[in-house]
Amino acid sequence: MAPTEDAARIISEVSAKNIDDCVRVSSFTHELEESIRGHIHEELTSWLFFRKLAADCSRANIALHGFALYVYLPSNTSGLAGQHRVDVFADDDSLWERSAIESLADAHWLEKYLQRGGRCKPTDIEAPKIEFSDNPVEPVGPVREALAVEKRILEDLERLMALANKVGNYSLAAMLDKRFLCKQTRHVKDLADLLQQVVRVSKQPGLGIFHLDRELRCHDGCLPWGKSNDPEMIDCALQSICTTLGKEEKLLGNC
Ligand SMILES: [Fe+2]
Question: Family, per the entry (predicted)?
């Protein structure tokens, strides 16, 4: 066959193919695709929920500016996930705004993953029913609800991870482990600690929440207990101790 005829045959063959099928690996099953879409829906629902809390906390009647300074601590050792957090969040985002941005970013990431042979099929997002009470300002209900939302995301991620492993889609499983699960586990614990603090201070209406709000402001926007919830920070601390001990041994050796 002449070279031009050969080229024409190849072009004709490829033109007739569904390129999505060429991209799609066999472990990217329809069940997995549906579960990814389900998790995107979960993240977008959470995004709207956190947006609503952010809007409520910005009202003059509530004005919880200490909460507005909250940041997720960037971790030196969490690779892309840590880098991503630093890049995405601006300094003036609030606790809830950061949570909302993170949910949106995660939904976006999974939407990109779907494009490896799958399809994006958005579904209706239910409006959040939460209302941050302002008379009196009552943060326990909203923080408890936020904890439930973070936990729901974590449990859905675990289901997705289990399915990815079951069907042998190890690339998704690895990324879920690296990018999503570690930080999400920490978010649940961070919010559980915040809930405990909020419950404790709410026993003195008004004054207690004022002090917690001020404590959050005094820590430059970081949850004061945030570091102790990140196992990777323990690794960093150990590494730092070992480095210091190594330097001291070297100095002693030189004496
Ligand atoms: Fe989260």
Answer: Belongs to the ferritin family.
Rounded to the nearest angstrom, the distance between the alpha carbon of 184 and the centre of ligand 1 is 5
90-94, 126-130, 169-173: segment of lowest average pLDDT: 90-94
Is 253 contained in some domain?
no
Quote the domain boundaries for residue 201.
26-70+90-223
Q: Amino acid identity of 8?
A: A
- Per-residue pLDDT tens digits for 9-68: 999 999 989 898 899 999 999 999 999 999 999 999 999 999 998 888 888 998 886 665
- Ligand 1 midpoint to CA 150 (Å): 5
Q: Could you tell me the CATH number of the domain that includes residue 210?
A: 1.20.1260.10
Side chain identity at residue 111, one-letter code? E
Domain count, the chain: 1
Where does residue 113 rank: exposed (0-12), middle (13-18), buried (19+ CB within 10 A)? middle
Q: How far is the CA of 186 from the centre of ligand 1 (A)?
A: 8
The token pair at 23 is 């991209």
